[in-house]
Amino acid sequence: MKERADFKYKVILVGDVRVGKTTLVNRFVNKTFNAEYLATIGVQIYTKWIKQDQKTILLQIWDIAGQTAFRQFRKRFFADSRGAFLVFDLTVPESLTNLHISWLKDIEEITGTIPCVLIGNKLDLVDARKIRDNEIEAFLSHHSNIGTNLITSALTGFNVEVAFQELVSLIEPELKKD
User: Is residue 165 classed exposed, middle or buried when 0-12, 13-18 and 19+ CB atoms within 10 A define those classes?
Assistant: First the structure.
């Protein structure tokens, strides 16, 4: 799509290593799933043109490396972000805890309060799920800037498109999803 964007937004995808950030963005942007794990080094930037409420939006999606060794370095990638996806793995309780004790603090330090969507990924791993809805609700009760939360599966694509639409709607409230 080679047209003029009505809106351009930089959004960030954050969370611990191996929570599925890259597979989520690949599912959204390329409509693909790759089961092979390849660690993101630093940041990987994706772009996607979308239409929402008859507006053309260019999303610049920054997939931020989850390794703790990159913590100080990765903060510089948060600048000018209009929204964030906070991604955790439903099978790894620490990945939700770390959003609270590390990722959100770093985001707020650099950007202030920006709209966020909380994503519990890997819904397809039903038997391995360790994080329950009540734990997610407890997490949300401490963070008023998280506008919504969704359970997703990058493998099946469940709720992936919805998650991106939700964040755009939180960033630009007049753009309501259909």
Answer: middle
Average pLDDT, integer, range 86-101: 95
Domain count, the chain: 1
Instruction: Tell whether the model's pLDDT for residue 145 goes beyond 90.
Output: no
Q: Residue 175: its pLDDT value, please?
A: 61
Average pLDDT score over residue span 147-159:
94
What pTM was computed for the model? 0.89
- Amino acid identity, residue 64? I
Decide if 178 is inside a domain. no
Strands 55-64 and 7-14: parallel
Residue 89 forms part of a structural domain: yes
| Residue 27 amino acid letter | R
Structural Rg of the chain based on CA atoms = 15
- E strand or H helix that includes residue 117: strand 116-121
CA distance 174 to 57: 13
Q: In the numeric block, which tokens belong to residue 109? A: 């330090």
Q: Are 12 and 86 in contact (CB under 8 A)?
A: no
